[in-house]
Specification:
Elements: E1 6-15, E2 18-28, E3 33-37, H1 44-52, E4 59-64, E5 81-84, H2 96-106, H3 111-120, H4 136-147, E6 154-158, H5 166-181, E7 185-190, E8 202-207, E9 210-215, H6 217-224, E10 228-233, H7 238-241, E11 249-250, E12 253-259, H8 264-272, E13 279-283, H9 287-299
Parallel strand pairs: 3-7, 3-8, 5-6, 6-7
Antiparallel strand pairs: 1-2, 1-4, 8-9, 10-12, 10-13, 11-12
Helix pairs in contact: 2-3, 3-4, 6-9
């Protein structure tokens, strides 16, 4: 088993009486994309700052590429880390190309890479214009280009699709998939859940500094025990008269069956045995539903 690229072991940080992040343990492997989800104040940005070494843990340990990110020894690893903060801001008077060339040189790269990255994020046409003339979406693209300098081994992206239109969002996720296939690890922090799930390997859900759940979407679905929704077409009242199926019907959804994951195949086979069946719609719980489940459970004070 290879050493994780990022490890947090009972890592937490407190400001006076406030626990910004309670004791969190997590590992991120090479070539893995982790989705970090939670409302404002959940501790997402705090966790990213710990991994960047900008702040130090009050307790527990943080390791990135085998060393503490806040130590003097970690300086040479920083060129292998890319970061996009939630609110990007640049020198307004400089052009996009000047801004990116400046950041590229800070990381030991040249102007050519800056030009290539501007092309990759789709703002070549505006690279000679001052940043103050850029729209929010263009600034976000410039921020992404800055984070991608040097094909980082670790990429931390805080709300990366804010201000991006649907096409730019699609292009952004293509770049994330490409970086992953090249062996980069990504921590993707987002409020916007639709569209994220097919690009992440695991999800981590935080609330008020506490880790509520972590795992693949399949594992989280299993933990949450959310049912599969099956909607048959063409059977009309037949389902209600079938002793093997009627128990899965609910008053709120008269023609829809809510089926536990482990019963899914049995129910589908039973439905397929009915001659009148025209079509089937099968929906498993999506990331948004899984997220809401853990959040509501936490808010109602249940034990994990």
């Amino acid at each position: 088993m290879s050493t994780p690229l990022v490890s947090l072991t009972d890592a937490g940080i407190s400001y006076q009486q406030l626990d910004a992040l309670k004791s969190v343990t997590m590992h991120l492997n090479q070539g893995e994309v982790l989705g970090l989800f939670g409302h404002n104040g959940a501790g997402k940005t705090t966790m990213m700052k710990l991994i960047l070494g900008v702040i130090s843990p009050s307790r527990g340990t943080v390791e990135v590429m085998g060393m503490a990110p806040d130590s003097k020894e970690a300086w040479h690893c920083r060129s292998k880390v890319g970061y996009l903060p939630e609110n990007v801001s640049f020198y307004e008077q400089l052009t996009g190309l000047e801004v990116l060339t400046y950041f590229a040189k800070l990381k030991g790269f040249n102007k050519k890479q800056a030009i290539d990255l501007l092309e990759q994020v789709g703002i070549t046409h505006a690279m000679k214009r001052q940043v103050k003339t850029y729209s929010k979406g263009m600034r976000q693209r410039l921020g992404l280009a800055q984070a991608f300098i040097g094909e980082p081994k670790l990429l931390l992206l805080d709300e990366p699709t804010v201000g991006l239109d649907p096409i730019a969002t699609r292009d952004f996720y293509k770049t994330v998939d490409q970086l992953k296939s090249n062996g980069s690890s990504v921590i993707l922090c987002s409020h916007v859940l639709p569209g994220v799930e097919q690009h992440i390997d695991r999800a981590m859900i935080l609330s008020t500094g506490e880790l509520l759940a972590m795992g693949t979407l399949a594992q989280l679905r299993q933990q949450a025990a959310l049912p599969v929704t099956i909607k048959p077409f063409g059977l009309n009242g037949t389902v209600a008269n079938d002793s093997k199926l009627k128990g899965f019907l609910t008053a709120s959804c008269p023609n829809t069956l809510l089926v536990p994951e482990q019963e899914k195949m049995k129910v589908l086979k039973q439905l397929l045995s009915h001659e009148g069946l025209d079509d089937l719609q099968v929906d498993t719980a999506n990331l948004e539903q899984v997220y809401q489940h853990f959040l509501l459970k936490h808010e109602s004070g249940e034990k994990k």
